[in-house]
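[job 4471] stage=fold_predict status=RUNNING
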Amino acid sequence: MNIMIAGCGRIGRAIAGQLCEEKHEITVMDIHQDALSAATGSMDVIGYNGDCTSYRAQLEAGVEDADLMIAVTNQDEKNMLTCLVAKKAGKCRTIARVRSPQYFQEIGYLRDELGLSMAINPEYVASAEIVRLIQIPSALEVDTFAKGRVNMISLDVPEGSILDGMLLKDMPSRVGQSALICIVERNGQFIIPGGLTEIRAGDRISVTLSLADVSDFLNKIGIRARRIRNVLIAGGGTISYYLAKRLLELKIDVKIIEKDPARCEELAELLPKAMIIQGDATDKALLTEESAEDMDAVCALMQHDEENILLSLYMKKISEAKVITLVTRNSYEDIAGELPIGQIVSPKKITAEYITRFVRSMHNEEGSDVVALYKMKKDQVESMEFHVGNDARVVGKQLKDLALKPNTLLTCIARNREIIRPGGRDVICPGDSVVVVTTQKGLKSIDGILK
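[job 4471] inference complete, writing structure tokens
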């Protein structure tokens, strides 16, 4: 597929890198030559130095041959205008990055009027990711499928757990039918498990189950599930606003620490039920004064990664709070992942996953779409939800008769309001949503799981 990306910042480069791995032809546009050089020097992409809102520049960059324009500059208005020009000049599909809360509240109208195929708000989707992590306090990672009815949570198997030494085939009888372990991480290796896989203490496992079954499952395997009642947010940026708004709707107490007095006043008006504190969230005295060590969760969402990492390291040392850390710089992600700073959230990575899902769905093989896509375990494993079309080859066959590609596991089937834990005699039907975990890259339809 021929794809143009307007804007070569962190988000643009992350999207370009992901789509390059998917073997698409990528052209990046930016007015800054340094940004273009950084992209073209590290990825197999074509660079065009020019204003993405210019009709002439888009034509010269090849918009007439493009299948998709993705506008992710740092200005919402510029992104929307870029998509409008591309729609008229190239008749391609368009995706715009829209960050402003004001614009995002009106995104339905804007999307219809501008003919956008998709509008993406990195800060909003990052806040949604944090909310999922907070709702399941003991989880290291939470992904959702089947319109929120199925969760995939990542957690560490504790010492003395009933799971230690258990074969996977024995899990339904000893722990219950509601959960299915679909990934095991051990000593840096990732396993798509089978019935004879043995679970050990210290393993990091990914489990699919419904939200209603999470607490019961955690208690059975020896993890105390503590409900989150209050959250401290360090930094008063856009992610913090979206996050606080959602947490307050969930009846969770919110405290925000922000340096800028003007922003504090603005947040106090926007979030009257939150406690807004003007100060430096890396100031030990202030943290002590605000009883940070007694908070159930702490989200480090400040502008600079260094401050977020420093605060999270300190909070992990002094409290048992769930800690979530915003990391935006590519050069920090691998290092930060080795530090005890809780769960790391990367808006650009989440945004790239959303857009990759959309691009895969454009292929639409055999009438089956990618409904959800998450890259896991340092991008070595993908978990996907497929909508099954009438003509899919997997339809009407018992699962035991399907020849699946290696390291591929069907974790659940959503049919109407029913969630099915798949067994060998189950059958996939048209209209089903099927969740798959695999080390195979680039699957575009449910039939892609077959050999």
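[job 4471] summary: The chain has a mean pLDDT of 90.
[job 4471] exit 0
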